[in-house]
Amino acid sequence: MTGGGGVREPDEEFGGLFRAAGVIGFLHAVDVDTGAEVAYGADEPVVLASVFKIALLVEFFRQADRGALDPAERVTVMADRHTPGPTGVSAMADDVTVSLRDLAYLMIAVSDNTAADTLIGRVGLAAVNTMLDGFGLVRTRVEHDCATLFTSVVEDSGQEDMPTDPAVVSRLRVLDPARTNRGTPRETARLLAMIWRDEAASPESCAWMRRLLGLQVWPHRLASGFPYDDVAVSGKTGTLPTLRNEAGVVEYPDGGCYAVAVFTRSYGTAQNQPRADAVIGTAARAAVERLRSRPA
Amino acid sequence: MDLVKHLRYFTVVAEELHFGNAAVRLGMAQPPLSQGIRRLEEELGVRLFDRSSRQVRLTEAGRAVLAEAGEILARVDRLRALAGREEGEVLRVGVPPDLGSAVIAALIAGFEEACRETAAPEAAHHPATGRAKAGAERAGGGVRLVPAEMWSADQAAALTAGALDVGVLRHPIAAPGLVFGPTLVQHPGVVLAESDPLARLSSVHLADLAGRRLVLFPGEPGLHEETLAECRRHGFVPQEVHHAQTLGLVMAGTAVAFGPRVELPGLCWRTLVGAPLAWRISAAWRGEAGPAAEAFGAVAVRVLKENAGMTEDGAAPVRRVRSRPASGFLA
């Protein structure tokens, strides 16, 4: 710490915030326009959980740009083919007929697992990883669809409900970055910044992706750090036992635009941990404040 | 000083080379035993034990004194026997220190009553004490209870070593050869400082305790693990875990503790929502229980139910997680 009550070191500030919320956290924040950054464990391998749906979204729109698929094409998802999940088509009882891009909307807005798996069926995971390679995001790997991740949890825990027993949680493969969909905070923030700079796909597709990410419904994580009507928060959460993530972009009324990726792992195994959710917003806010207080 | 008494302390410590085990054999707490040995050392002007290393060892002087002490004690015992002052059978029992004086007193009174009732067979049959009476009867009555306050891990070791006849200990605990009586269960609440904002609530959820420090009993490794796992499951990961026998840290407002209802100035006790913690306790002995041990086990069950609010071990409570979409699989 610098003397006289000055600015605290990032390690001290972020470490303290995460610790007080009962989590281990990793963070990367980048100014979309200048590239200035704030990092805290930004290159640690992290479990993406549903944050992987951003990479899938990008590849989906790139294939649409190439004409490899028609985003308006209607597909029917049979009721007996739904991937487990608490929202969207996953939670619906009957067959659903919907366009591919509306599935993309459900996948981002409410993290619909069935929507994601249906899009993976069209887009292919190999194509997602090829796209990531092309952007140099080589530490981000998407190797499993939601159904496979769910099967692995059931195999490891012997139950269909998400486990809270610490001994069971500790043996879940989906929580081991080496054996699940993984990335780093830095690469995740970078992919988002590319969407905001129209570099991830065509400008039209990037605009569409920004719109979908802005329609995400969850208020408890990233958005909780920016409780202002004139600040826009777009993002995608990621949740698995003990894991709470969100990566998104925060846009200030003065034009400041910041991509932030926060990944946390809680010591407690309870599903409801509002402080762990909220620290994602608090830490993101602290990072954005650091970026904004720098001399231009 | 009572030289004979102190020499007896000395020989037992010299045999055990372990103050804790010696204290159990003597039916006393360890601090007064250590003090007694120190007093004897002052009296004789020599050091009897080398306590510098982790082990207790006899010094040269200690070995010399031991031979003489054995001789003296044997003579004193012969003298007592001649005088007809030989004491009756002794039942060495261990009880967890947190049970409190009232419960321990009730255990002793209950056991004595069971013994007395067997001496007066015409006394009305009391179903709850029937088994105790039968045991005490076979024990021939006149058994003197020597209770020692010990935590479960020490009790298990003492039972295994034969230094204790019956224990009253907390689960989960595993030791080869231990046999357990019926299990009773207790749902502890939380003890808070009166000034804690949570004291305003009618009952407290484990998750509400997040960020606080926790005081746990020392010497209960199984219970410790089980309690912390349950806390984690409910979102309470104590910032720090202290081992302490008293509630001083709670009173000072720096920590919380779990336990039965307490009514002490400065403290406040609240039930835990959903009774998430279940402390199981039972009498235990090594191998086949003697009649006196069996009698004590039955008295313990009755006293713990009547005086400590414990109940028969029912089915394990069903743990329900009421999932919410925002925290569901891959939300």
Structural account:
- The complex is a heterodimer of chains A (296) and B (331).
- By secondary structure, chain A is an alpha+beta fold.
- Chain A has eleven helices and nine strands.
- Chain A has helices at residues 10-20, 52-66, 88-91, 100-109, 113-123, 125-134, 146-157, 166-169, 185-196, 203-214, 274-292; strands at residues 23-31, 37-40, 46-47, 74-77, 96-99, 182-183, 232-240, 243-251, 257-266.
- In chain A, the strands form three sheets. A five-stranded antiparallel beta sheet of chain A has the order 2-1-9-8-7, sandwiched between helices. A two-stranded antiparallel sheet of chain A has the order 3-6. Chain A has a two-stranded antiparallel ribbon with strand order 4-5.
- The relative contact order of chain A is 0.19.
- By secondary structure, chain B is of the alpha/beta class.
- Chain B folds into three domains: 3-82, Winged helix-like DNA-binding domain superfamily/Winged helix DNA-binding domain (Arc Repressor Mutant, subunit A, Orthogonal Bundle); 90-184 and 280-312, 3-Layer(aba) Sandwich (D-Maltodextrin-Binding Protein, domain 2); 188-277, 3-Layer(aba) Sandwich (D-Maltodextrin-Binding Protein, domain 2), CATH 3.40.190.10.
- Chain B has ten helices and 15 strands.
- The longest helix of chain B has 23 residues, at 60-82.
- The radius of gyration of chain B is 24 Å and the shape is globular.
- Chain B starts with a helix and ends in a 19-residue tail after the last strand.
- The A-B interface holds A 20, 22, 49-50, 84-87, 91, 110-111, 113, 146, 149-150, 153, 161-162, 164-167, 218, 220, 237-240, 266-273, 275, 277 and B 207, 210-211, 229, 231-237, 319, 321, 323-331.
- Chain A: One of its GO terms (molecular function) is beta-lactamase activity.
- Chain A: InterPro entries: Beta-lactam/transpept-like, Beta-lactam_cat, Beta-lactam_class-A.
